[in-house]
Design goal:
Arp2/3 complex 21 kDa subunit ARPC3, mainly alpha, two-stranded antiparallel sheet, single chain, 2 strands
């Protein structure tokens, strides 16, 4: 990759990072009545776009920066929220990014987003069991009891909505950026 291409990639990743931060600042609301403290935000959409355009590790890099900004500036969740966001969205990016990198087709994108959604839900279940009792002081058993009725459905819904949004916006953004990832591929999204 030439210096010009590398600079362009870094600038675009910075733009996607900024859009992610703006989205979490502007759009944040409860979507699960059983747990109004669990908030939906579309901040993962630009992160997933970064993973699809530039590879899974670029998505993880954007995740880390967004998580730190969100955790320090916008959220009262502090280090625990930062860690949980990095693990959950990072795992989503790695899985979805690698699947899409290997299979850059419509079916590959759908598979990547579906498996990424499930991965995020599993990772968040584990993070909640381990970290929520430390952060909130809730007994671990109480957190475990919330997994099936609250935590897992919320994370499946949040990741599913962000996957759907990513599926819709990826191709127009890739065309706008004129990236190598956007070059026509048979059945590409």
């Amino acid at each position: 990759m030439s210096n010009k291409e590398n600079t362009r990639k870094i600038a675009r990743l910075a733009m996607l990072t900024a859009v992610s931060v703006v989205l979490v600042a502007l759009i944040r609301f409860p979507i699960f009545p059983a747990a109004p403290y669990l908030m939906y935000d579309p901040a993962d959409v630009p992160i997933l776009v970064a993973a699809f355009l530039y590879g899974p590790w670029s998505g993880v890099a954007v995740t880390v920066v967004v998580s730190i900004i969100q955790g320090v500036v916008m959220s009262g969740d502090g280090i625990v929220g930062i860690i949980m966001h990095i693990f959950a969205t990072g795992a989503f990016c790695l899985v979805a990014g690698y699947i899409y990198k290997a299979r850059r087709t419509l079916a590959g994108a759908v598979l990547a987003l579906l498996i990424g959604t499930m991965t995020m839900a599993v990772v968040m279940a584990g993070c909640n069991v381990v970290l929520t009792p430390i952060y909130t002081g809730l007994p671990r058993k109480e957190v475990i009891d919330m997994l099936v009725p609250v935590i897992i459905p919320f994370n499946l819904l949040k990741a599913g909505l962000n996957s759907l949004a990513t599926f819709i916006v990826y191709k127009p953004i890739s065309r706008l950026f004129g990236t190598e990832a956007a070059k026509p591929v048979k059945e590409s999204i």
